[in-house]
Amino acid sequence: MKDEESFTLDDPAKLKALAHPMRRLMLRHLGLHGPATSTTLGELLGAKTGTTSYHLRQLEKCGFIEEIPERSGGRERWWRRAETPRDMRLPTPDRLAPEDRPVLAEFHRIGWEEDRGLLDRLPELYRRDPEWVKASRGLGRMTMTEFEEFFDAYVALLMKYSHRAEDAPPDARPLYVRLFAFPADES
Fold first, then answer.
1. What angle do the packed helices 38-45 and 21-33 form, to 10 degrees?
2. Which long-range contacts (CB under 8 A, 24 or more apart) does 151-159 make?
3. Would you give the end-to-end CA distance of the chain in angstroms?
4. Among 39, 53, 125, 148, which one has the highest count of C-beta atoms within 10 angstroms of its own C-beta?
5. Number of Cα atoms under 13 Å in the Cβ half of residue 46
6. What positions does the domain HTH arsR-type occupy (predicted)?
7. 87: number of CA atoms within 13 Å, CB side?
8. Can you list the alpha helix ranges (DSSP code H) found in the chain?
9. Residues 6+ apart with CB under 8 A from 108
């Protein structure tokens, strides 16, 4: 799939795989730091190797990670994030069967909890390293079509300037990027 194409993650099994906190941490680590073993991930996350191995297999089954055969040997298996569409979007609840909507709700709940944690860290991170912390707040007035175009342009811009961990220049740092946008007349 081309980077420019968006992909809607509407498979309930894949949503469920990504709604698990341990798996999210593992994916985040692989995205930030590149390949790792289940032992390495277990040490970093305070989990037993059997636990991390199980969760890695679930992520592999859903196509989010893949083994690196040339680095793996014996009982040691190295894992990396799989080539997945970079513009992965979530369905609206009406695009899922009613019985699958709680999985989407849990996915959002965990993600928003992570986002709140990042937002809480922002002031301290800004004090420590203001050149690497940027924030923007604004108010815009848009039609639904313009809002959709704005969001698509934002995602395209993010993809244009982002590198995978293994392809990044030496001076590149991983950055959490969030865009919050919602109607101001409902706040």
1. 110
2. 151/179, 151/181, 152/6, 154/179, 155/6, 155/87, 156/4, 156/87, 159/3, 159/4, 159/86, 159/87
3. 38
4. 53
5. 0
6. 13-101
7. 17
8. 12-18, 21-33, 38-45, 49-61, 101-128, 144-161
9. 90
Instruction: Pull the structure tokens for residue 154.
Output: 């934002």
Predicted TM-score of the model (pTM): 0.77
In angstroms, rounded to a whole number, what is the distance separating the alpha carbons of residues 86 and 169?
Answer: 19
Please give the domain boundaries of the chain with CATH numbers for all domains: 6-133 (1.10.10.10)
